[in-house]
Amino acid sequence: RIAAARKSVHAALSDGLQLADAVNLARMVGETPPNVCHPTWIAKQARKLARETEGLTCKVIDAKKAAELGMGGLLNVGKASDIPPCMIQLEWKPRRIAAPARKEHLVLVGKTITYDTGGYSLKISGGMRGMKHDMCGGAAVLGGMKAIADAGVPMKVTALLPAAENMISDEGYRPDDIITMYDGTTVEVTNTDAEGRLVLADALAYASDTLKPTAIVDMATLTGGVVVALGHFCAGLFCEHDGFRGAVECAAAGADEKVWRLPVWPEHREFMRSPVADILNSNPKRSAHPIQGAAFLSYFVEESMPWAHIDIAGVAALDADPVTGHGSTGFGVRLLRTLAEGMSGTSPSA
Fold this sequence. Notes:
Blueprint: H1 7-31, H2 39-52, E1 56-61, H3 63-69, H4 72-78, E2 86-92, E3 105-110, E4 112-116, H5 136-151, E5 156-166, E6 178-180, E7 186-188, H6 196-211, E8 215-220, H7 224-230, E9 235-238, H8 242-255, E10 259-261, H9 266-271, E11 279-280, H10 289-297, E12 307-311, E13 317-318, E14 327-328, H11 333-344
Parallel strand pairs: 3-5, 3-8, 4-5, 7-11, 8-12, 9-10
Antiparallel strand pairs: 1-2, 2-5, 6-7, 9-12, 13-14
Helix pairs in contact: 1-5, 4-6, 5-11, 6-10, 8-11
């Protein structure tokens, strides 16, 4: 236990410990081995968090309901696994809504691929090692919701965790398949190892359709290309809404979790067009590789919606870090809480 004579110092220390607990939740989930951490286990962790946290509720859209809703991305990515995919929804409703946030509804979406073999586009030459970390976007959102609820941020916030294992079986989806997403968009599959954007797309479309957000942030270990571009020094930020991008950048600076902007231009969106479906899940040309994922996702969010895609592939897990050591870093938890605080007017980042 830590205490200080000055109330302001004591409050700051208590807040820091509380935030550290949320970061450590994300790190624990990110480090749990894939024979334990699968979609059903993630759902149990979310339900447990909701039971323990006043104001936080959880519901799970199971595979049967996802099929009824037409979530073709989530279902196809997860159908080769013995453990079915699911969509986890956590909702934070505080007792009091701050005046600046009365019309705000922030939705957080986290890629939760609990293990990624690459599917039939199989990861080879050791490329599969460490793929337990492919759900660190979902882990960050889970930890972010704990941090937001523990801090009592006076604004409505909802999280979606589309959870699936990308495995191989005779049921697995294949390159050349055409799948239909939640919103009716058809996608030509060119690469089953570009699976994260498929589950995220269903979540983004579902959020836009049913949750009526005023802003959306998705967080994902999405591309190796962003690691080549930015290394382990920062995450890639894709946001074409000037005001919301400024809020995310301000939150990132305040949280000391660095991001760097990359563009999503109309040319990038056009690059994702398919000759046999509406869009491709991955252009076979490697050009603008880290941007391709963001360009794909942009089709599932209304153009006017303040939306930020944060690619954390280079920062979600490290071989060595002076603070967290080896493995999952919990990157994103502090950023998400700081962003929510700023939007609610309860932080200097507002």
